[in-house]
Design brief:
The complex is a heterodimer. Chain A is globular, with a radius of gyration of 28 Å. Chain A is built from 22 helices and 37 strands. Chain A is of the alpha+beta class. Chain B is of the alpha/beta class. Chain B starts with a strand and ends with a strand. Classes of the chains: A alpha+beta, B alpha/beta. Chain A: Pfam families: MoCoBD_1, MoCoBD_2.
Chain lengths: 932, 173
């Protein structure tokens, strides 16, 4: 079967071959090879879309459209779900199909399966169970720890846990059998009631801080200064037992924390406002349900996979871990990953479980390619956002000034049945729980608990969405109590550049909270709110009008961010950029092509996203240890090897695209200018020392300096290639809340770059350049967190129908500090999407936690209420970005921050309209009616 | 296993007879029998509209149909246009170009459904122009059931509005 479709224009065509890069061997010696999935050899030549010229406009300013625009607008074969075995080079043509049977009960013992409802000709060709996995010595380990499938006789660990994998030969049988199984009762047989499986929490931390004499002064005590603390044990299996704290750091946190809480209780900290807030369980609802393709090439002991995930390298490692002890015929020597574009993710495709089952399907399909594609019911039951409870006594404050004096908060996150990122999300919630405000003393505890709910993990907002929402509502309540303007109270307490955050760390970026608040205050939606209210309510006597404001400050990056980039040009001046990431829709591929212009005068002609393909081999990188846990001694020892870096590539998560990925591109572009184009220009100009590198300027796409002849890129490229000069630069960059730096000697020149590895291409050959010195961020920097922070604010205007409680969002205005916007249209597009998703969180999206929730396999968008256009003020959504302080300001990661303030601003608007404070999400018309 | 035979004209090409399972969804038929994967599977229950294609009737009118809840057998004998049909000779259709120019989509998975629905809207307006005052309402009515998780709908809607406004024959005073 040949596919009929257009050739993708993005990423641009590359030499499709068995390109591999060894990213290291697992414990069992399985070689991992990752292959980017791009325009494919199976495409019919006469059915391909010709190249789309001119995406980059004039090549310097904002691009005309996304580099992947044509491919997506024409329905090109791009997404993981689009591919079948016949599309994969070297695979057999026919595709088998697999499905998972998921437990809809996690309080009764799993007895077995009854497939009698399927006629003989519809029976699966293979049934894989926990017993098969055990016999084959296949088990989850490493990142994933829970049972891959529930064994007979055991109660499922969580709702939605697979109990079997069914493989069908041929689409016809699969389609018919799946329809029958989906509507059937009793296929999975349960026995006696046991109650839910109980397990200890996934993690807990305490963030206690006693600030110094002013917001920038050294702390008396803080996590950044003294280290993070964890509880010594959990009482009753779920609650941290802080009073027994030991060692010393934990004991001090307990003592200081107790003191802060006492000052709030006894009034010494000023007036106190308490709040209990609960956020919901929500689904990512990425548009493309998860899927994957696998083929076990037994002759070569190779398992090949085709997936669409945010975490290519780590996903492959997890599968290698799972198979590290596997016995014949399931033992493999090579694991090959092909990675496609994917239709949305929002954190839901960052280390998902499904690829493990895709791999299992491939191994158990008797050498035939097999596809495992979840339907939407299964996808919603596979993983979702965790609910959180947030009890806080935030902010004692001085009534005479409104200045916050102390902040106490206890956060609890229901992590569902698998560990996933629950503990990390809980920590992020805690660290960001003061939102954009400075508090001199704080004590925040957090815990991520286990439950038998469906898998809960990361999602856009990553904990900050929940805790910031609670704080922003509380700040409004404080303002009301003090009879202060909400923006004025925010201004009084706002973080500013140089202030310490809740961990005691000082953000390394400028915090322009005052400018942000000024813009919000000046927005007509805010400044004219009283007139608007009068006018609206006069015209709509049965409706109330409300306006709410909220801000947010949230991190971008993870503290263990690695990025690879390569920028090169051909003799005819075509620039190619490659970056080690995946495209999930945010526009990273366009942004990396645009960032090249920082130093090379124009955009790249081609952008290739390649997580860890063979192209990076020239750097010869090696890594070891855990970048978040290693000691300084271990780091220093490892760094002596000039090929060692703390981490090679990052997942596409935590809003790292603009900041991390394009940073490496910028450094590579700079080095290509300095070591490639500059020598060529100097040779052409013959200007001796009268012109220096610092004099260089790109004007109208040509390089000039001090009145020298402007040189076109093509001319420079020709010269570089003809003279054997540098025509390509490859770099690796690492950030642990600050960039690693290294010194390189290149052709007698010394360069200190914000990178830790460098290779140059001359005459077609890449050669690595050993670093002479390297400065990795201290291991202790890991404690800091959130030193890269973006800020935003939102104003929401809405109406509430007094007769039925119906809420209509009328207008939204957002103000954002994104640093330098690489592609303004991508930034505003992110903001618009974030606003819509925020409104969904505030008003519509909700999943029950347990038996009535998605784990019962009946949830889809007929019940899970994703915002439609009618729920969003499509024609009345505006965005204002703060102009960058400098033209070369670094871009900030904003994919999450654009969403967060919309939620509390909506709740504050409801409060403004009704006088009622709602502290559970979502707020529905029913809730409002009941409160009236 | 119950099977049926169908033949369908897809993007101008007559295809069939195909013997298919009676319950095969049209989206699966497009994907696995014709290799046309541009039509996207989203929810599988006809709510998100990512899977919408255009069905052209004999009388020259057309309608959009969801392919996840309609079996392939429903399309037997019909003429169907999918997203793969819109670009001609390497040139995007006006709707596709408008979406691209406006940065209308991000992940792009819902785009084929929007392309088809907006195309049908423009074709409708060519026969029955909409009043300028009612343009935004008409866009909302036409595209309102299509789910998009990335964009907040703003740029899709603005792209369609600008495209319609640019053609005086599609609106009336």
């Amino acid at each position: 079967m040949k596919a009929m479709h257009f050739r993708s224009q993005a990423p641009p065509p590359v030499n499709w071959s068995r390109r591999r890069f060894l990213i290291g061997s697992s414990a069992a010696g399985i070689t991992l090879a990752l292959v980017p999935l791009v325009a494919h050899a199976a495409f019919e030549k006469d059915e391909t879309m010709p190249a789309a010229p001119g995406w980059s406009g004039n090549g310097v300013g904002p691009p005309r459209y996304r580099i992947d625009g044509y491919a997506k607008a024409t329905g090109a074969k791009l997404y993981a779900r689009d591919f079948r075995a016949a599309d994969m080079a070297g695979w057999p043509d026919e595709t088998d199909h697999a499905m998972l049977l998921l437990a809809s009960d996690a309080t009764h013992r799993f007895v077995g399966m009854d497939l009698a409802i399927l006629a003989n000709d519809l029976q699966p060709d293979k049934v894989v169970t926990a017993e098969d996995l055990k016999a084959s010595r296949i088990r989850a380990k490493g990142y994933f720890t829970e049972d891959l499938m529930c064994p007979k006789g055991k109660t499922p660990d969580y709702l939605g846990q697979p109990v079997a994998l069914l493989i069908f030969r041929g689409l016809e049988k699969f389609v018919t059998a799946r329809q029958i199984l989906r509507g059937a009762n009793g296929v999975i047989v349960f026995g006696e009631e046991t109650g839910a499986v109980a397990k200890p929490p996934y993690g807990a931390n305490r963030f206690t801080r006693i600030g110094g004499s002013d917001p920038s002064a050294p702390d008396v005590y803080s996590p950044a200064r003294d280290g993070w603390v964890v509880p010594p044990r959990f009482r009753r299996g779920q609650y941290p037992s802080w009073p027994e704290a030991d060692p010393a750091a934990t004991r001090r946190a307990e003592a200081y924390g107790r003191d802060i809480r006492a000052t709030l209780d006894n009034g010494r900290a000023g007036r106190v406002l308490k709040q209990h807030f609960q956020t919901q369980s929500a689904d990512h609802f990425f548009m493309e349900p998860e899927s994957g393709l696998a083929w076990h090439d037994a002759a070569n002991d190779r398992l090949s996979l085709m997936l669409g995930v945010q975490s290519p390298a780590d996903t492959l490692r997890a599968i290698a871990d799972m198979l590290s002890d596997a016995e014949s015929p399931y033992a493999i020597k090579e694991l090959e990953g092909h990675f496609a574009y994917f239709g949305g993710a929002f954190g839901g495709k960052d280390m998902p479980l499904l690829p493990n089952y895709v791999a299992l399907a491939g191994l158990f399909a008797d050498g035939r390619p097999v596809r495992l594609a979840l339907d939407r019911f299964e996808s919603i039951s596979a993983r979702h956002e965790a609910p959180r409870r947030d009890d806080r006594k935030p902010t004692g404050r001085r009534p005479e000034t409104g200045a916050f004096t102390a902040f106490v908060c206890d956060l609890s996150l229901n992590g569902g049945g698998t560990a996933n990122y629950s503990a990390s999300v809980a920590d992020a919630a805690a660290i960001s729980s003061a939102s954009m405000y400075y508090v001199p003393k704080s004590d925040v505890s957090t815990i991520a608990t286990h439950s038998h709910g469906v898998t809960a993990g990361s999602m856009r907002g990553y904990g900050g969405l929940q805790s910031i929402t609670a704080m922003e509502c509380l700040v409004d309540d404080v303002a009301a109590q003090l009879n202060m303007d909400p923006i004025e109270l925010r201004r009084k307490n706002a973080m500013r550049t140089g202030y310490r955050n809740l961990t005691g760390a000082v953000p390394v970026v400028t915090i322009r909270s005052e400018a942000l608040l000024d813009r919000l205050e000046q927005s007509p939606l805010w400044s004219r709110r009283d007139q608007d209210r009068r006018a609206f309510q006069a015209a709509n006597p049965y409706k109330a009008y409300g306006v709410g404001v909220a801000c947010a400050m949230f991190k971008y990056g993870t503290g263990e961010d690695g990025a690879l980039a390569a920028v090169s040009f051909s003799a005819d001046g075509r620039i190619e950029v490659a970056a080690s990431t995946v495209e999930m829709g945010t526009g990273t591929s366009t942004a990396v092509a645009v960032r090249v212009a920082d130093h090379l005068g124009r955009h790249a002609d081609q952008a290739i996203l390649d997580s860890t393909g063979l192209r990076w081999e020239p750097l010869g990188l090696v890594t070891s240890g855990d970048p978040l846990k290693m000691s300084q001694q271990d780091q220093d020892a490892a760094a002596a090897n000039p090929r060692w870096v703390p981490v090679i590539t990052s997942r596409a998560s935590a809003s790292v695209g603009a900041h991390v990925t394009t940073h490496a591109v910028a450094e590579a572009s700079y080095a290509l200018l300095r070591f490639g184009l500059w020598p060529a220009a100097r040779a052409i100009w013959q200007a001796g020392d009268t012109v220096t590198f610092a004099d260089l300027q790109w004007i109208d796409g040509k390089l000039t300096a001090k009145g020298m002849e402007p040189l076109s890129f093509v001319r420079l490229a020709e010269r570089c290639h003809a003279s054997g000069g540098t025509t390509g630069v490859m770099v690796h960059a690492f950030s642990r809340w600050q960039w690693a730096g290294a010194e390189f000697a290149v052709e007698g020149d010394t360069w200190n770059g914000a990178i830790d590895a460098l290779a140059l291409r001359r005459g077609g050959d890449w050669r690595v350049q050993d670093r002479r010195k390297v400065s990795f961020p201290p291991a202790s920097t890991e404690r800091l967190s959130e030193t890269y922070a973006a800020t935003s604010g939102a104003i929401v205007a809405l109406s509430i129908d007094r007769t039925n409680g119906a809420i209509k969002v009328l207008r939204v205005h957002e103000v954002l500090d994104c640093g330098r916007a690489l592609v303004p249209e991508l930034v505003s597009g992110q903001a618009q999407g974030g606003i819509a998703m925020g409104l969904g969180h505030a008003l519509t999206e909700y999943l029950p936690l347990y038996e009535d929730g998605p784990g019962n396999g009946t949830w889809n968008v007929n019940r899970y209420d994703v915002p439609r256009a009618r729920d969003v003020p499509v024609w009345d959504m505006t965005l204002e970005t703060l102009p960058p302080v400098k033209n070369d300001d670094a871009p900030r990661g904003i994919a999450e921050i654009v969403m967060i303030p919309v939620i509390p601003a909506t709740l504050n608007a409801i409060h403004d309209a009704t006088g009622k404070r709602f502290t559970r999400l979502p707020v529905t018309a029913d809730d409002i009616q009941k409160a009236q | 296993m119950e099977t049926v035979q169908i033949s369908v004209t897809v993007n101008g090409r007559q295809t069939g007879h195909h013997t298919i399972p009676a319950g095969l969804a049209m989206v699966d038929f497009l994907h696995d029998y014709l290799g046309l994967t541009g039509t996207k599977f989203g929810c599988g229950i006809g709510v998100c509209h990512a899977c919408v294609v255009i069905v052209d009737e004999i009388d020259g009118t057309s309608r959009s149909m969801r392919t996840c809840i309609n079996g392939a057998a429903v399309f037997d004998g019909k003429r169907v246009r999918t997203v793969e049909a819109h670009a001609k000779d390497g040139r995007l259709s006006d709707v596709q170009q408008a979406f691209v120019d406006h940065f209308a989509f991000q992940c792009g998975y819902c785009t084929p459904g929007f392309v088809n629905e907006a195309t049908r809207l423009l074709e409708d307006l060519a026969r029955n122009p909409v009043s300028k005052d009612g343009l935004e309402d008409r866009i909302e009515a036409s595209l309102g059931e299509h789910l998009c998780r990335c964009t907040g709908y703003v740029r899709y809607y603005e792209a369609v509005r600008d495209l319609i406004r640019a053609n005086p024959k599609l609106t009336k005073s």
